[in-house]
Amino acid sequence: MYKLRTVLPFLLLLAAFLFPQLAKASAYWMEIHGSGKLKDPVKVEVCYGFIDDLSARHRTTGAEFQEIRNFQFFILNANGTKSKLELQIKGDHWEGSFIPDKNGTYRILGINDQQPVLNRSKNPQENVRPIDLMCGAYDVGKSSETTLPAQFMDIILKENNGIYTAFPYRDMKPVEKGTMLRIFNPENWEKNIPVNENHQVQFKPTLPGLYVIRQDWYDNTPGTFLGSTYGKIRYRNNYCLWIN
């Protein structure tokens, strides 16, 4: 037992040194910033990076970061009017902006279905095609009552007395009971919560900053994309919530 306790930490440290990707969780996220006032510009930053083994979030600017150019982003206002959000590269993030001209909730929606296949093995059936989605909301004045999903994978978030309820959807339908949502707080601690019988998950933010609510789903239908064969498609939706 003494030898095991001595050797195990060394092996974990060695694994983190030899295989640093095991200590990093990479993903896309967005940050939405504004005054909450009518006619004041709203800035949307879209980033790519990783969370290190000390739970610090880092922005990176490699090949995955460049893939942000293939995201299609839209603004959905309280009246259901949809407009395109154009992004421009700005150092360590891509940035777009819009000006809210009506009170209510503005939903920010994005999808990138043009990423190359992740070649993980010599066996093509082990390869994965990633499709990333993002969503978030921005309120001006009184928030609107949002009840319907607006993209293939979506999360609708409602707040009451500091408690948030997330309603995840897939293919415009509520996901089944037991589906796992992963919630990252501003310190990047992760909590996994299963969807209950009412097709929802509840949580209470305790810190200001960025919260990411993540839903993953795998479609095990094989295919070929951009000349590469894959065995399944990984859909990932990140709802990005900024708490002031």
Overview of the structural elements:
The protein has 244 residues and is mainly beta. It is built from two helices and 19 strands. The chain has helices at residues 2-18, 63-66, and strands at residues 25-33, 42-51, 57-59, 72-76, 82-85, 88-90, 93-98, 104-112, 128-140, 153-160, 163-170, 173-174, 180-184, 190-194, 201-203, 209-219, 223-225, 228-230, 232-243. It has an eight-stranded mixed beta sheet with strand order 5-4-8-9-19-16-13-14, with no helix packed on it. Strands 1, 2, 3, 6 and 7 form a five-stranded antiparallel beta sheet that branches. The longest helix has 17 residues, at 2-18. The chain is globular, with a radius of gyration of 19 Å. The model is unreliable at 1-23 (pLDDT under 50).
**What is the assembly state of the chains in this entry?**
single chain
Task: Please summarize the sheet with the most strands.
Answer: 8 strands, mixed
What fraction, in percent, of the residue positions are helical?
under 10%
Rounded mean pLDDT is 90
Shape descriptor:
globular
Distance between the termini: 48 Å
| Number of helices in the DSSP assignment | 2
Question: Reading side by side through the largest sheet, how are the strands ordered?
Answer: 5-4-8-9-19-16-13-14
Q: Given the helix and strand composition, which structural class is it?
A: mainly beta
Could you spell the SSE succession in H and E letters? HEEEHEEEEEEEEEEEEEEEE
* Poorly predicted parts: 1-23
Beta-strand percentage range? over 45%
Number of strands: 19
